[in-house]
Amino acid sequence: MLTTLAVENYRSLRDLVLPLSRLTVVTGANGSGKSSLYKALRLLADAARDGAVAALAREGGLPSALWAGPETVGAVRGTRRTKAVGLRLGFSGDEFGYALDLGMPIPGETAFNRDPEFKRECVWSGPVLRPAALLADRGGPVVRGREPSGAWGREQHRIGLTDSLLTAFADPRISPEVLVVRERIRSWRFYDHFRTDADAPARQARVGTRTPVLDHDGADLAAALQTIREVGDPAELAAAVDDAFPGSRLEVAAAEDGRFALQFHQPRLLRPLSAAELSDGTLRYLLWVAALLSPRPPELLVLNEPETSLHPDLLPALAALIAAAAARTQVVVVTHALPLVRALEAVGDDSALLELEKEDSATVLAGQGLLDRPSWHWPKR
Length: 381
Known about the structure:
- The chain is of the alpha+beta class.
- It folds into two domains: 2-21 and 33-188 and 356-372, no CATH class; 192-296, no CATH class.
- Helix content is 25%, strand content 28%.
- The protein has ten helices and 20 strands.
- Helix 9 (315-326) packs across helix 10.
- The radius of gyration is 23 Å and the shape is globular.
- The model is unreliable at 73-84 (pLDDT under 50).
């Protein structure tokens, strides 16, 4: 489980170190930095697939993603910071930690002058970065790793400046721990704003295959729900539907051509409703059911504003679903809906509420002083 998330110089996240729990609820006013925090987590996940550079390019390149505040500002809780020259992301947990430092290339060396380069990158054991805990250490294009004896290997490995060591150095023969960290990050799952319009993929009947993980666009909703019924927890699925829509039940019809179609039975209706007939809120709730009851839970599940298009009456049922998912995997929920926050506080046993706010144009954690921050050290360039 991740216990600490750290971000520096990414948009309004000037210097943020957050504690994470089994269920972490991130809230705050519009413009407080919630979306930036969600994107920062996605950037970390992209690094494990060598996609961080491309993801930043979609944001206009590294200069567009960097902290845009004044060169010298009164930093969070009384310290002072200077002009940002790089973007740092990292996390730690009980077993492993990882951090990356992205910066601009040396002027004149490449025509791709907006592509960030990895200046430092580290994987370590335990919750805090210490020299003795380092497992893999990257400075520029050079990576070194530990031998089984614990000593640094004599061979220095060279990788591309825009390649992450998580992909270029994850060799089970020389760096098995890096491979473990990479695969754990790759299992992270993100869901953000399911489509429910008339042409939404979830409303269409499609050929069904076993689907333990709902796709990000919800196109395989019917197959995912049927998979839960067959290899997951069908009683939990039925309870989740009945909790939100008392007396209702789901069926999945398989046609001769292999297409799966959703059938939603409600009291006092003479026929079931198809996915195309469901209201936006009902369809969205069923999408969350399929996502949260996955029979193949990830290492980390991140939900961005799951309350969108849901009637307030459905939020307690959604909160119960999220709490049930947190019993199987670590969950981070980003939301600005106070009713959902209250519902999650009521059902979450091992949960934490993080409220973000702005101070001197920078995102900070409300009520966090310097002594309250989790222990965190960035690798130096």
